[in-house]
Amino acid sequence: MRLLESESIWMNGALVPWGEARVHVLSHALHYGTAVLEGTNVHDTPDGPAVFRLDAHLNRLYRSAKIIGLAVPYSYGELHAATLKTVAANGHSSSYIRHLVHRGYGEMGISARNCPVTVSIATWEWGAYLNEGVRLMTSSWRRNDPAVVPTLAKATGPYLNSVLAKAEALDAGFDEAVLLNAAGNVSECTGANVFLVSDGVLVTPPAGAGALEGITQDTVERLAADLGLPVRRRDILRAELYTADELFLCGTAAGIVPVASVDHREIGAEGPVTAKLKHAYDAAVHGRDDRHRDWLTPVNVDA
Q1: Residue 42 in contact with residue 165, Cβ under 8 Å?
Q2: Are 248 and 195 contacting, i.e. CB atoms less than 8 angstroms apart?
Q3: Where exactly are the transmembrane stretches of this chain (predicted)?
Q4: Hey, which residues are catalytic here?
Q5: In 185-211, which positions are buried (b, 16+ CB within 10 angstroms) versus exposed (e)?
Q6: Per-residue confidence (pLDDT) for residue 300, from 0 to 100
Q7: What is the CATH number of domain 134-285?
Q8: Is 8-124 assigned to CATH 3.40.80.10?
């Protein structure tokens, strides 16, 4: 998916032109994956652009940094303000936000004791991450074991697992891959959580399955509660994907997208439960649901 460049990127306390947001080739994170990231969205609302669940994303960024031993050199309030400043500076009514905290250039080697921590915030206009009717395949790659790699942290290093699985799926003619964990149960997709619907009940894998604790996953669960839809977090067998009444993926970049098939087994068109949740999600992110206005942080584009 081609990246549309914006005007500015916030980097280490200041806005810099897009092309000047650079790091050294010997940055520790480039060699050893010592970085954490967040992906957040800005949506157009009746009151102007607003960031969806910014607090939840920033809180997870700090948790991820703590897990892998990164000391973020900016306070929560500073990054909150910097996020809004960057969105306003780039002037988009809707856009994607990428927060990145990484170990920079200071020394080489595993220890990284003398590597400064760099923080950046970039925003850009991004189209649909996945199209409707996803053709899903089960990857031959297994999801990282949380006892070996800290999957509760949204860190860059473990994403190599997703990169390999995504490439395998695309090369095989599919749209996306679902990864199983070491026990053979469903974990998640390369960049999205998985929900199935069976007999009117929504089911999604638990955190112990190796999946990232998704903020959109949590949003779906809360919207399901609004709609009176029961939700269960439990282990899911691969074969259950084939026999699900409905199946969909969710994530910040993806939104909510129905799955049309898994390993060439047809699931069918978008089902009624998925349709209800998609409608509720769209209303929430665009400020049409007053019950969840606290999920939206307005951006003052005139600031």
Answers
A1: no
A2: yes
A3: none
A4: 154
A5: bbbbbbbbbbbbbeeeebbbbeeebbb
A6: 82
A7: 3.20.10.10
A8: no
